[in-house]
Amino acid sequence: MSFPNFIEQALTLADPSWLPVLRSALSDLQRADSAYLSQLENTVFLPEATRLFAAFALPIDRVHYVLIGEGPYPRAESATGFCFMDGAVGDLWSPDPDGGLSKKVNRATSLRNFIKMLLVADGYLTEADTSIAAMSVVARQARLPGADLIQTLPDLQQNLLSQGFLLLNATLVFRPDVAPAKDAKAWQPFLHNILTALHERQAKSESHVVTAVTLVLWGKIAEQLKQISVTELFSQQIAEHPYNLSFICNKTMQSFFRPLRLLQRPTLE
After folding, report:
1. Would residue 175 count as lying in a domain?
2. How many structural domains is the chain composed of?
3. In this structure, is residue 137 part of a structural domain?
4. What's the pTM?
5. Strand partners, 129
6. Do β-strands 214-218 and 165-169 pair in parallel, antiparallel, or remain unpaired?
7. Which residue in 239, 255, 256, 258 is deepest, having the highest Cβ count within 10 Å?
8. Helix (H/G/I), strand (E/B), else coil: 104
9. CA distance 257 to 215
10. SS3 sequence, 160-211?
11. Is 261 left (phi over 0), alpha (psi -120 to 50) or beta?
12. Starting at the edge strand that comes first in sequence, how are the strands of the sheet with 65-69 ordered?
């Protein structure tokens, strides 16, 4: 099955291990809605077309978790093809002596709450106090020479990838004139194929030690993927979308992420 040129260009960012799966998944998407990809080709969407499958740069045999959010950021600089990884964010910590998280992190509400949840999980903050004053104490610690805490959002993204997180969204595109839930519906056949491939890889593995893939679903649109039958074959971690303040105190998420220590600098061996 042939695809529009922008799809072929986007596939060049994917790891070769994903290419047969992605082509099959796109074929399923086209069979479900033959006009969808052509419509995308003639409309404005984010992320930029070449980054559409950027998350699939992580080889398929390194995937241990599939984190699924709602959709790409609605800003060109922010939409990177990786869920929750805001391309406009560099430094995590404010350079202000009394500051906490950087201004750009604070403007990215979901990312800010995700980081605060991780800080609570790792014991740097308490649920009772995630204020600017409390954050400033953590930031001062983070800015010390040789501090154990990571410094930038790319550091966090690398830690997530190193742990085997495939960072996807329920819809791979944001269009200003289309509701995310509508686009997410169109991408369901694609995601069904991706998840089926991950399950089959586990089932066919000759290794006796196979790390099962866990689905991490954030928000109502991501949770709708439970309608896809293959999701029943995976362990699932489900939470409200991180733009809700309650996410910071979500004990299920704290327990899940605590062992991963995503805010720690990698240990050099």
Report:
1. yes
2. 1
3. no
4. 0.94
5. 126
6. unpaired
7. 239
8. helix
9. 13
10. HHHCCEEEEECCCCECCCCCHHHHHHHHHHHHHHHHHHHHHHHHHCCCCCCC
11. left
12. 165-169, 65-69, 214-218, 235-239
**For every one of its 269 residues, what pLDDT tens digit does the chain have, with 9 covering 90 and above?**
789 999 999 999 999 999 999 999 999 999 999 999 999 999 999 999 999 999 999 999 999 999 999 999 999 999 999 999 999 999 999 999 999 999 999 999 999 999 999 999 999 999 999 999 999 999 999 999 999 999 999 999 999 999 999 999 999 999 999 999 999 999 999 999 999 999 998 776 655 555 689 999 999 999 999 999 999 999 999 999 999 999 999 999 999 999 999 999 987 55
- Residue 208 to residue 220: CA distance in whole angstroms: 36
Q: Please state the three-class secondary structure of 249-264 as a single string.
A: HCHHHHHHHHHHCCCE
In a domain, 174, yes or no: yes
- Assigned domain for 214 exists: yes
Residue 14 is part of which domain span? 5-80+159-244
CA 194 – CA 205 distance, rounded (Å): 17
**Dihedral sign computed on CA atoms, order 141, 144, 145, 150:** positive
Q: Report phi then psi at 241, rounded to 5.
A: -65, 140
